Amino acid sequence: MNHQSFIISPETGWILLAVLSALWIFLGVYWGKKAKNMDGFMLAGRNVGLAFGAATAMATWVTSNTTMLAPQFALQLGIWGMIAYSTASFGLFLFAPLANRIKALMPTGYTSGDFIRLRYGKFTWYVFLVISIFYGFTWLVSMGMAGGILMNAIAGIPYELGMTVILGVCVVYTLFGGLYAVIGTDFIQSLIILIGIVVVGVGVLTQVDFGHIYINVLDEKPMLLNALMPAAIMSVFNNLLFGLGEVFHSNVWWSRAFAMREKIGKKAYLLSGLFWFPVPIAAGFIALTSGSLGVNITSPDMVGPLVASHVLGQAGAVIVFAVFFCSLASSIDSLLAATSDLITEDIYRKMINPKAGEKLLRKVSAGIIIGLGVLAWAFCMPRIGTLATVLFFAGPMVGSTIWPIVTGLFWRKANAKGAMLGMILGSSIGLVAYFQLGWYTASLIGAAVSMVTVLVCTYLFPDDFEWNTLNESKSQE
Amino acid sequence: MVSKLSLALGIYCWAMSVVQAQEVEFVGESLQVAPSGYIQLDWSGEAEFFWLEQAKDSLFEETKVIYRGPDKASFVSGLLDGQYYYRVKANEGEWSNVLQVQVQHQSLNLALTLSGLGLLVFSLTSVVIIKGSRSTPSTS
């Protein structure tokens, strides 16, 4: 691990960690009391309104990926990198109409896996589950790593301990509160994140001069201002399609669509996209100030926290610590809840024990949340690579799910052959691109190959799907 | 007796600091390729202060100080095509081994082709969603 000087003392760091951990656990247990049945635990009673709906979507999307990876993009890929990251908001914008469609087609649905199984059959469902669980787990690992890196860089808390605490806290409150706790804490976390980002932004703007930043970047890092930087150009649509794939397929977003009241989903996702859009640009901009501020960057994924803490000093570092802790927690809890739902519902209830009652399912779900936390912890321990390399490894896989999901929701003619082949070919060829060309091409290639495959198969083997099949409550009557 | 001991201790400390200073070296291969113009520099060694330099020639005739401070890593980005050389030292110690970085950005044609492909996929996806959500009733 890189050695660097710490911004706040480990004692202050531990106190902050203890206070924030106690707060989230208390709130998780408090909100968890509302979860009387499986619908309550998994989908917050399917009664989430606009404010909580928009806040949870926004907070979940403001993850370590935004607060740590967006500045990394700017530092590695310059102006295009900043813009590239903000394009991930298109995932939320385009999911808005899908959310209403999902809720209308599947009023009693639980997971994105339910949709694939009912729409395309078992074999496509298996492929989808592998992709979705792999992606969810990769995201979880990248987030756990981010927690450890952050606490080490800011407060000198050993990477292993910081990472263990943040994973442990999220496991505990998700375990008690389910989606009620996740959405409730997300609401508060999103407020802290937005206030914190405004404070950091104002702090940066009062200390640095735009002209000075420009000259410094032009002298020291000229390629970052080059509009024709090849890797940066490639990253724009790669990141956009990665974001689309992440939101479209992941149960994190589907579970919120199921949890929201009817016709709320579209507005909530549009609002969350609008709130989220400027965040990576603001976060990315501060990375470009690192040179003129004289901040040494020891690892690209630490540029955001390092610059923000440098600008705001000791007191500001406390705010930064809280903002980053919230952004990590709001995503880790969502992932734990959504991935556990996917495994409980799609694997345990659908494949292993269809007759399982609610009590047993709740126990299984709790066991899976703990298991996921422990497994993620084990993978986080060796700190495999930078956040981007870990997360974008799943890029081609999620990119390959875009067209099977979209056409499956709107085209009767879309069929299982196209969906399955699209995901397999898109993932495989995208992974080749990941290793041959770089991580900034993999999602793009994966999505393009999958699109062509789905189009060809829809033309060659048109289905005539009956939409009512997706409504399990109707089809069981 | 005491003065001899303190002299010996002083010599030992000086020798140790020289040994430690000489041990500063880059972690990883001494020749690295950076196809996107950025590189992570990590070095080993124990000291309170490090001095990192960059040059465009292997003899370090024209150098630029990249970093001075206690950290043992530095991330360099935004490099143009070309050869770059790095060396690091601790306090007043010896320079480390030289790290050579070869920057060769990817082909612009490839980048533009892939971007065109990305734009096509995104546009078609948007069309399917917008058209679908307008023309398809919620359940039919």
Description:
Chain A: Pfam families: SSF. Chain A: Keywords: Membrane, Transmembrane, Transmembrane helix, Transport. Chain A: It is found in: Membrane. The complex is a heterodimer of chains A (477) and B (140). The radius of gyration of chain A is 22 Å and the shape is globular. Chain A has a single domain, classed as Sodium/glucose cotransporter. In chain A, 80% of the residues lie in helices and 0% in strands. Chain A has 477 residues and is mainly α. Chain B has 140 residues and is of the alpha+beta class. Chain B is built from two helices and eight strands, in the order H-E-E-E-E-E-E-E-E-H. Chain B has helices spanning 2-22, 108-135; strands at residues 25-26, 31-34, 39-44, 50-55, 63-69, 73-76, 82-90, 99-103. In chain B, the strands form two sheets. Chain B has a five-stranded mixed beta sheet. In chain B, strands 1-3-6 form a three-stranded antiparallel beta sheet, with no helix packed on it. In chain B, strand 7 (82-90) and strand 8 form a beta hairpin. The longest helix of chain B has 28 residues, at 108-135. The radius of gyration of chain B is 26 Å and the shape is elongated. The model of chain B has no long low-confidence stretch (mean pLDDT 84). Chains A and B meet through helix 4, helix 5, helix 10, helix 19 and helix 21 of A and strand 6 and helix 2 of B.
